[in-house]
Amino acid sequence: MYDKIVTWYEINKRDLEFRKYKDPYAIWVSEIMAQQTQIVTMLPYFIAWMKAFPTIKDCAAADEITILKHWEGLGYYRRAQLLHQGCLFICENFDGVFPERFTDIKKIPGIGDYTAAAIASIAFNQKTPAIDGNVMRVVSRVLALDDYIEKTSTKQTIKNTVQKWMSGCETCDFGSFTQGLMEIGALVCTPKNPNCQVCPLHMQCKSFQTNTQALYPKRKPRAAIPTLQFATILFIYKNKILFNQDDQDGLMKGLFRLPQVPLASFKLNENYQKMGELNHTFSHKKWNLHVYQTKHSDSIFRVKNDRFIQ
Prior knowledge:
Helix content: 40-55%
Shape: globular
CATH architecture of the domain at 227-309: Alpha-Beta Complex
Number of helices: 12
Strand content: 5-15%
CATH class of the domain at 227-309: Alpha Beta
Number of strands: 7
């Protein structure tokens, strides 16, 4: 399986900017940016980031506002905050040099099993199975796994399988293997309409042999996503707009936004004029924002870390 995957990858891999780097820091940045973001979207951000912060020490030396400004437009800003914290951690604990040991990589804030394994295999050629959504889909179809993909036992089966495919080779290019398996999932073994005839694994794929690819991976029925109702305040004073720095919500913590309070606790009166409604959908919840404009200060939306911006 190793030979099939690597041979296919060398012929079919996309020419992506971040693949020109073997620097673990650059690989780390690309992996974090690619989470929850399409490759075509994150590429220009990656290029700009590496120009602005070419090293771990450059990133660590920047303040959080500068970091977030360079992340602007990518969304999920917590990723940028953790990346910054991770660089500070490496400077404090590893003298600014990215650690090579998998166990040390996992100590870095914001780095979990998948990201640590991807960096270890691509940057340091270590035999560490990196299991992302693409890999899980490929393996679940090859094995025709009948258990839900969310189960711990299923994930362990997939990890063990990838580890087996990597075994028996001490001089292999594990970075190409890791990227190749993910690339098969991204380009060939896609969620819908997989192009099985060109897949290097189709002869070993149980779901292909039984024409049941569409059934895998098997997923638990999703629970309904809750919708949260908020009053969002547009407070204008001397041609400046009030912004609050969020200190609670994990999605926006540390970021400035218009004041926002639960709709149930908002007392509407003649000082507020409704401007409309906005909807934001996240992976696990939805926000319905009722936007009100006012020229009157109110303790309900004035907080310690607020500021007026023109």
